[in-house]
Design brief:
Distance between the termini: 21 Å
Number of domains: 1
CATH class: Mainly Alpha
CATH architecture: Up-down Bundle
Strand content: under 5%
Length: 293
Amino acid sequence: MHLLLTTAVLMLMVSIGMSLRFRQLLERWRSLSLWSWAWLVLATFLLPPALALGLVRILSLGIGATAGLFMVAATPGAPLLTRKIAKKGFDMQLAASYQVGGALLTPLILPVVVWVAGHLYGREIWIPPSALLIQIAEKQFLPLLCGLALANLAPRTSARLLPVLNVVGNLILTGVLLLLLVKMGPALLKLDAWLLVAALGLAAGCMLLVAWVPGAEARVRGTLGISNTNRHVGLALLLSGQYLHRQDAVPAIAAYALAAVVVIAAYTQWSRHWAHPDDTARTGQPSASNSSG
């Protein structure tokens, strides 16, 4: 199952790379002010973990739920939603810029956040930045760069491969997720109602935190809000088991994965009156018919 999931992620990341334009990525970076990026760093890396710890304390959740929600709050930048948001009328290039920027900062910030939080609970936890860098490079940067290179060096081949990678990658990913849901079914049925409340609160908080990005228009805030809510569940699972040694963190991470889907779906439904999926001038992408996946 791990091999299938890795294959699906790599295929979809290559597909994302084929759809991106390096110049537009840089333009999105430059379109936001220094104050905007400073707030994004807070809203991406520091405030979600603090919110998670506050929620578990208020709701008196156990140490497993604490570890799971904290770790998922500390790991931003899930890579697989980037293509999808273009079809909802949001800015795919901006989402990719956010993802790349977050991936670059994760090895620098996440170990410090986890170390500080560990001391609050009397534990010494250190995640080597090199371990994070290897994970991010293998799962995100390398396939993304391969897709970018193929799109620039062999545009015709890239255009033929793009829909194939999208369809096959999404089919594999859907199958793996269904298998995981079946496997985790008994655990999901036993989720504490307060844990679900905490997960929904964390997901909504991640969305709302970006609403205060200075000087950003509604489309930008929406794109960044969806990207910020889309935490890196897979990385959170890996780190919680390997470095926190908390296998009981899995239900909380699964609860957040479900909560994020609900919050993102609710937000995209609410924002449909100003988000236009076929507006190529705003998204910087082809129409939905040419960017399926």
